[in-house]
Specification:
Elements (H helix, E strand, L loop, with lengths): L1 H21 L5 E5 L7 H7 L9 H9 L5 E10 L2 E14 L9 H7 L9 E7 L10 E3 L5 H18 L8 E8 L3 H4 L8 E12 L7 H6 L3 H13 L4 E4 L2 H6 L1 H12 L11 H11 L3 E8 L2 E11 L2 E9 L1 H7 L1 H15 L4 E5 L3 H5 L4 E11 L2 H12 L15
Parallel strand pairs: 4-6, 11-12
Antiparallel strand pairs: 1-2, 2-3, 3-4, 3-5, 6-13, 7-12, 7-13, 8-9, 9-10, 10-11
Length: 406
């Protein structure tokens, strides 16, 4: 009898969810093709300064430097005349070349031959940023329920997908990224046939109150980690560090692009290979809240790091490395450690390191914070084509370190 009861309960749940999907949300919304069309005062009414990567300066920089395979949509959701939610969408065209590193291309593409070839084009509608990890795609007022908020988001996403048909159908809808404490609310997306999947964690280093200087941070490390760090900096004594202005970034355009490409070409999945114009725009729009630091050896740039400063966070963003000099001068590790130094100097509360090189970042004290996305495939054939792509975004295996004394 219990099995029958469970079966009937499941049928009722499916019927209820079907009715919800067929019922429009109770809110109105407005869609915009450019951030330049959005009323900044309305946007800022729902997006606080602490959500820096959903604010106008970052969104403007992202849009102004976009490529031909990338477009943006913005949504404001209203309860009557009041803005109660906002969403950022990216529409991208992905292909087989966006999956797998250059070194892995031959072996991995042989596994998916005939399924996801380079000529295969996949149109994706993404709520959130392709440029960066984190919950920068959707925000809603605490005056409305999560159920109403995510119902509205699902409706907005559906409307955008339908409006895109004249430009080619959307194959995949992706809503990203949610932290664990947001997962209960975001589970409502499952009602609208979204599937939840886990990503590699975002690496966070909480800055302790007692770390007034970088030396304080180093003194908190266990002896072997402190010794490694001092040896690392000793290896890089010949490196000159310099924060670049907008004009200097433009003048070093080709060097920065090559250094960035050296790193980006090793990535397993790269929906968005940045152009240096992105960094120029970030500096132009975000000013002191964007840092591009060049690392020079005898006048030659051999590495760079970028940091986004928003709210209480110092975010490690894109980096570039000349691998010819990396081993001898420990360039990459210094890019990471210098981000910690910057965060302490600016009295930030967190360093956000992103999803790559997790074990190396845990050597600095960063800890993993799980993240989730929701995906919805538009059609059966697309499901078959997309399946290999999910193979490459399974969570990575790595060993977490604890470098601190306590």
């Amino acid at each position: 009898m219990k099995k029958l009861s469970d079966f009937l309960s499941k049928l009722k749940d499916e019927k209820d969810q079907f009715e919800i999907r067929r019922t429009p949300c109770r809110f109105g919304f407005a869609l915009f093709d450019s951030i330049h069309y959005v009323a900044e005062n309305e946007w800022n009414a729902i997006v606080p300064e602490s959500k820096g990567l959903m604010r106008f300066p970052y969104l403007t920089a992202m849009e102004n430097s976009s490529n031909e395979d990338e477009r943006f949509k913005y949504a404001l959701i209203y309860d009557g005349q009041k803005v109660v939610a906002a969403a950022v969408f990216t529409i991208v065209i992905a292909s087989g070349k966006d999956y797998g590193s250059r070194e892995e291309a031959r072996s991995k593409f042989s596994k998916i031959k005939g399924t996801l070839k380079e000529k295969t084009k996949l149109k994706m509608l993404i709520c959130g940023h392709t440029h960066i990890s984190g919950d920068h795609g959707f925000i809603y007022s605490q005056e409305i329920t999560p159920e109403d908020a995510y119902h509205a988001l699902a409706d907005v996403t559906y409307q955008i997908r339908n409006s895109e048909k004249l430009k080619g159908s959307v194959h995949l809808q992706l809503i990203k990224d949610f932290y664990e404490d947001q997962s209960i609310a975001s589970e409502h997306l499952k009602v609208f046939n979204y599937r939840k999947f886990k990503l590699d964690p975002n690496m966070f280093l909480p800055i302790r109150l007692e770390w007034k200087t970088f030396e304080d941070y180093q003194n908190a490390l266990k002896s072997k980690y402190r010794t490694r760090m001092r040896n690392m900096y000793k290896q890089g004594e010949a490196l000159e560090r310099r924060i670049l202005s907008t004009e200097e970034i433009e003048a070093s355009f080709d060097e920065i692009q090559q250094l960035y490409s050296n790193v980006a070409n090793k990535a397993k999945m790269k929906l968005n290979h940045y152009n240096t114009s992105y960094f120029v725009e970030l500096k132009r729009q975000m000013k002191d809240d964007f840092v591009l630091a060049g690392y020079f050896l005898n006048g030659k740039m051999v590495g760079f790091r970028t940091n986004l400063l928003w709210g209480e966070n110092c975010e490690a963003h894109a980096v570039g490395v000349d691998y010819e000099f990396n081993t001898e001068y420990n360039v990459y590790q210094q890019l990471l450690a210098d981000t910690v130094k910057l965060a302490i100097e600016l009295q930030k509360k967190n360093v956000i390191f992103g999803r790559t090189a997790m074990e190396m970042k845990s050597n600095l004290g960063a800890v993993p914070v799980d993240m989730y996305c929701y995906v919805r495939h538009a059609e059966v054939m697309t499901n078959k084509l997309i399946k290999p792509a999910f193979y490459y975004i399974k969570t990575s295996e790595w060993t977490q370190r604890n470098p601190f004394k306590d």
